[in-house]
Amino acid sequence: MFKEGELVLLQDKKGKRYIFTLKKGGFFEFHKGKVLHDEIIGKKEGDIVFSSKGEKLLVLRPRLCDFVFKKLKRKTQIIYPKDVGQILVLGDIFPGAKVFECGVGSGALTLYLLRAVGKEGIVVSYDEREEMLKLAEENIKNFFAKKKEEMGKLILKKRKIEEGVEEKDFDRAILDLPEPWRALSQLKNAIKPGGILLCWLPTVIQVFNLIEEVEKNFKKYYLVEGIYETLQREWQKEGRSFRPKDRMVAHTGFLVVLKVVKQGI
Rg of the chain over CA atoms, in angstroms? Predict the structure, then answer.
């Protein structure tokens, strides 16, 4: 049953979705009227509520991707779910992992990492911008407000990667930086042997420069496991017609996967 302080998603008959946090005495208002929060509190997922204008709404729990797109406060471009998926899979992010992240942004990827590592895991996130750290922390608290037991331990730090990595023994590391090659030296001793470093980059030239640096100066520390780009196209059914949607999520970035083969040599 839904409780005060939890996130809820209302969906209308056209599929439009609305997300908000439940509060006793509160209400949600949209173009089809008002919905009292007290009418939702105590309901189960899949129940129905009606607005003051008679609009029928389905009561659901929002997925993390719903929260990221509909509710997350952002000041930067976020990593799309299709790309988060390949980060979690190709990076082999597992429950209990210790993960380093640099380039927190609005905290979208951090949310997925915290859920993936679970309550036994740790996520250490660096960003040199104080305002982004505060925004990410706010977004994370908003999503995990009533389910902190689902998330790993989070350490947020205002720090430049060039200043070095204070923590050690990471299983995985993820860089969302314009020049990730500048962090290769700092990370080779911070990631466990056999660990994985993932670099998220929007342009071809950035990928080229990163691989060039690895091949010239860090070949004995990192093995290039792959360079990936993922495109996503949705389909739709309308009556007897079944075809792709007019718009698709095409290029958003490249994922470079590096394996740490040796350290400190």
Answer: 21
* pLDDT digits 0-9 by tens, 209-255: 999 999 999 999 999 999 999 999 999 999 999 999 988 888 999 99
Residues in the chain: 265
Residue 203 CA from chain centroid, whole number: 20
Within a 10 A sphere around the Cβ of 42, how many other Cβ atoms?
A: 11
DSSP 121: -
What are the φ/ψ torsions at residue 60 (nearest 5 degrees)? -135, 160
The candidate with the shortest Cα–Cα distance to 79, out of 114, 104, 115, 116, is 104
The pTM score is 0.88
Rounded to whole angstroms, how far apart are CA atoms 18 and 187?
A: 41
What gap in Å lies between CA 121 and CA 259, rounded to an integer?
Answer: 20
Cα atoms found within 13 Å of the Cα of residue 34, Cβ hemisphere only: 6
Look-up of token digits 């196209």:
233
Amino acid at 34: K
The two tokens of residue 201 are 């980059």
Q: Are 190 and 221 in contact (CB under 8 A)?
A: no
Residue 113's nearest CA partner among 74, 132, 140, 76 is 140
